[in-house]
From TrEMBL:
<feature type="binding site">
    <location>
        <position position="536"/>
    </location>
    <ligand>
        <name>ATP</name>
    </ligand>
</feature>
<keyword id="KW-0067">ATP-binding</keyword>
<dbReference type="GO" id="GO:0004672">
    <property type="term" value="F:protein kinase activity"/>
</dbReference>
<feature type="region of interest" description="Disordered">
    <location>
        <begin position="232"/>
        <end position="265"/>
    </location>
</feature>
<feature type="compositionally biased region" description="Basic and acidic residues">
    <location>
        <begin position="232"/>
        <end position="250"/>
    </location>
</feature>
<protein>
    <recommendedName>
        <fullName>Protein kinase domain-containing protein</fullName>
    </recommendedName>
</protein>
<dbReference type="GO" id="GO:0005524">
    <property type="term" value="F:ATP binding"/>
</dbReference>
<feature type="compositionally biased region" description="Basic and acidic residues">
    <location>
        <begin position="732"/>
        <end position="741"/>
    </location>
</feature>
<dbReference type="Pfam" id="PF00069">
    <property type="entry name" value="Pkinase"/>
</dbReference>
<dbReference type="InterPro" id="IPR011009">
    <property type="entry name" value="Kinase-like_dom_sf"/>
</dbReference>
<feature type="compositionally biased region" description="Basic and acidic residues">
    <location>
        <begin position="409"/>
        <end position="418"/>
    </location>
</feature>
<keyword id="KW-0547">Nucleotide-binding</keyword>
<dbReference type="InterPro" id="IPR000719">
    <property type="entry name" value="Prot_kinase_dom"/>
</dbReference>
<feature type="region of interest" description="Disordered">
    <location>
        <begin position="721"/>
        <end position="741"/>
    </location>
</feature>
<feature type="domain" description="Protein kinase">
    <location>
        <begin position="502"/>
        <end position="741"/>
    </location>
</feature>
<feature type="region of interest" description="Disordered">
    <location>
        <begin position="409"/>
        <end position="439"/>
    </location>
</feature>
<feature type="region of interest" description="Disordered">
    <location>
        <begin position="279"/>
        <end position="302"/>
    </location>
</feature>
Length: 741
């Protein structure tokens, strides 16, 4: 006999959102595509192929039945007070229609109670007190970026942030006191917790796309349903947008896709899940997440586009972007390896289910969030998401025996070493490994000069889930004056020997202005000689401004013959859209101080010192003997900083990730996106003092700085510049050079 359901639980199950708004005559929405650069280079085995509508209310009925099963499985509900949530009606005005407002209202009104209920029903059904291990919250930890000064770009940025928010998701709450009650777990719940043990507070369990509650978002939802509801004859393969480069194709062996859960609370149409026999046989001999060596053909002539039509037309109809918004959401789900994609706009909602094997997105009917079973539906969705996560992890572990050498776990390709590396392990083939500097062929001294004279760059991604089938074409941007870029000029074709080839192999970091990737840069068809480079891919208009400024700083330091910075090969722009991000290419200068200190930082409870660089020296004892020799490179840090100051540059962002050391012990300082072309004596002393503190381990912060953390230092804050004499900079440089190596 099922126990009596407490009144507070009834209130959560029967709640519906009461979000009202009035139509606006001026309904802002972004007039440019949301697709990002990396989305175009997703591996062919992971891109979206089909979008199919689920019949009627079948999905909703199955999820509600799943919630009823969970309720019936509880023998007795806790007698302690349930943290009931009060639902208030919200009347939207012109100022609070944006996507973040909708997300906060959803969080405050219904998500907390549903998290408590789903966690107790699925993870702690025998507990004598209410337990909650789930949280629906903002998971994007990026600091808010300043708005661009250009009026048109500012309006576009505001329209994008107003219309859609991608910062919210369901995560496991590791700070929950529920661990106290784990003794009361059933055998199934203990098994579920074991498979969820690698999830962290940053592990996004599903994809939420929160839209503003406006007429434009309503039209977008209707267009999505119309697109998914096409008949089989009218439904072509989903037009996944890729780069527009002509006559250049790269063939990759297929990955074997990761498996979908089998025992799910929902069912999908069997006829929609069928794959061609050829597609199944191609990947049948591969392990999950692996592939063989790639094969590609290089044309002798590169044709970027038929014409320089850069796709800049502003679209006045939001339905045009249906495919683009679906592509962006699918790419996020691939990144997180998520099954559920929830599209929410306050008054209505669409539930999408991603099927990995058939590369199909199943779309539900549009759900009215004011119905009296909406709380039960959300509770079922949260529990189904957790169940799917645990079952897929269980399936993977059963197919892969635990081996000591297989310690690399599946991780998001948007993070270098993320805390949410919870998923199944991915074994990479040798074709995806980056050659080390030791294995690299020797290059002549003129290779850098040759690279700087070439204006066209062919960019190919070849790491993790990004394997380009079509490369992107970037053109070099040059300054026509002090601060202005020369007009873009693209030819109809280029010989391959006059092009740079940039093969991106891994991601090594990220910041406010963009993501840094390690790559190899070739010239033409020469595969023997290459440069080990770092490619910084910008985010948005803000990054375009900062990367133009950073290029100016690098060129200024190059003219001043400063050696403590990487060599800059130039700034390049994607020719397909004038709003596409820039890429800044610099030489690879080694590992960052943050990477070298990270293990020691954790082992010594936050106290670290400068690492000693190890080299091999040859000792003559009648025969050659090599033994490691370690030396302290602390003076090199100070000499490099003094050299930059002597050139008149104020860095303003000295942090461990921005200081790199190569295998020979050479120190370089990077990331000049907020640097200034003026430095006072007081500012030099302040940065030197900060460097000394950083080297001694007194101040090591990998996430915040005195600038980006919001607390401005008097020496680094914008304000009135004070005159600095040339004698101060020379004294600083002489003092640094006089220190022992």
């Amino acid at each position: 006999m099922a126990p009596k359901i407490p009144g507070a639980v009834h209130d959560i199950l029967g709640v519906g959102l009461r979000f009202t708004y009035r139509d606006l005559s001026t309904d802002p929405f972004p007039k440019h595509s949301p697709i990002q650069f990396l989305d175009k280079h997703l591996d062919e085995n992971y891109v979206l192929k089909r979008v199919i509508s689920l019949p009627g209310t079948e999905l909703l009925t199955e999820l509600l039945d799943f919630a009823n099963e969970l309720l019936e499985s509880v023998e007795e509900f806790p007698r302690t007070h349930f943290p009931a949530i009060t639902i208030h009606s919200r009347s939207a005005s012109n100022e609070d229609l944006n996507a973040d407002t909708v997300a906060k209202y959803y969080q405050e009104s219904i998500s907390e109670g549903c998290c408590w209920l789903a966690s107790h029903l699925f993870l702690h059904s025998k507990a004598t007190r209410w337990c909650n291990d789930l949280s629906w919250k903002q998971v994007d930890g990026l600091e808010p970026r300043s708005l661009p000064l250009h009026k048109a770009r500012m309006e576009r940025r505001l329209a994008e942030e107003h219309f859609v928010s991608r910062k919210w998701s369901l995560v496991l709450d590791r700070n929950s006191p529920s661990n106290v009650w784990k003794d009361s777990l059933t055998s199934d719940e203990q098994k579920t917790w074991r498979y969820l043990s690698d999830c962290s507070q940053r592990t996004q369990l599903a994809v939420w796309e929160i839209f503003s509650c406006t007429v434009a978002s309503d039209h977008l939802f209707e267009s999505i349903r119309k697109y998914a509801g096409k008949s089989t004859e009218e439904r072509p393969e989903f037009p996944w947008k890729r780069p527009g480069t002509k006559e250049f194709r790269i063939q990759h062996p297929p990955y074997k896709p990761y498996s979908d859960a089998t025992q799910t609370p929902w069912t999908l149409p069997d006829e929609s899940l069928s794959l061609g026999a050829s597609q199944r046989s191609r990947a049948s001999n591969c392990d999950e997440g692996t592939s063989g060596p790639k094969s590609s053909t290089q044309p002798t002539v590169i044709r970027p586009l038929d014409s320089l039509n850069r796709g800049n037309i502003e679209i006045e109809d939001i339905s045009v972007w249906v495919e683009d918004y679906l592509q962006r959401a699918w790419a996020r789900a691939v990144d997180l390896d998520a099954t559920f994609i929830i599209l929410h706009r306050g008054t209505t909602e669409i539930i999408c289910i991603r099927h990995r094997e058939s590369q199909t997105l199943f779309v539900s009917e549009i759900i009215d969030t004011s119905v009296n079973y909406y709380g039960k539906l959300q509770t079922a969705i949260y529990a189904a998401i957790v169940k799917d996560q645990a079952q897929r992890q269980e399936m993977w572990e059963k197919r892969h025996l635990p081996k000591a050498e297989m310690t690399e776990k599946k991780r998001s390709f948007n993070h270098v070493e993320p805390d949410n590396s919870y998923m199944r392990k991915r074994r990479r083939s040798s074709s995806l490994s980056l050659k080390t500097e030791k294995d690299a062929p020797s290059t002549n001294l003129t290779l850098k000069e040759r690279c700087r004279k070439l204006d066209l760059a062919i960019v190919v991604l070849n790491y993790s889930l990004h394997r380009s089938s079509i490369p992107s074409i970037f053109i070099r941007r040059k300054f026509n004056g002090r601060d202005l870029l020369a007009p873009l000029s693209v030819q109809s074709s280029y010989p391959l020997e006059s092009c740079l080839r940039i093969d991106v192999r891994s991601r090594i970091g990220g910041g406010a202005s963009g993501h840094a990737h390690r790559a190899m840069m070739y010239i033409g068809s020469d595969n023997e000689h290459f440069q080990d480079v770092v490619v910084k891919v910008g985010r948005d208009d803000y990054s375009r401004q900062s990367m133009r400024h950073e290029l100016q700083i690098y060129e200024y330091l190059a003219r001043a013959k400063v050696e403590s910075v990487p060599h800059c090969y130039g700034l390049f722009e994607d020719i397909e859209s004038k709003h596409s991000p820039y890429i800044l290419v610099t030489s690879y200068a080694g590992k960052s101080l943050a990477d070298l200190q990270r293990k020691e930082y954790i082992a010594n409870n936050g106290t670290v010192t400068v690492p000693k660089i190890q080299q091999y020296v040859t000792i003559e004892l009648g025969y050659s003997l090599q033994r490691p020799n370690s030396f302290d490179c602390s003076p090199a840090f100070l000499r490099g900083l003094a050299e930059i100051h002597a050139a008149g540059i104020h860095h303003r962002d000295l942090r461990p990730p921005n200081i790199v050391i190569d295998k020979n012990g050479k120190v370089s300082i990077i990331d000049f996106d907020i640097a200034r072309l003026y430095v006072t004596g007081r500012q030099r002393k302040h940065e030197r003092k900060r460097m000394l503190k950083l080297l001694s381990g007194q101040e090591v912060d990998y996430d915040r700085t005195s600038f980006r953390g919001g607390h401005y230092c008097d020496d680094c804050s914008p304000g009135t510049h004070h005159a600095a004499s040339q004698w101060d900079s020379e004294e600083e440089l002489v003092r640094a050079r006089s220190e022992p190596p």
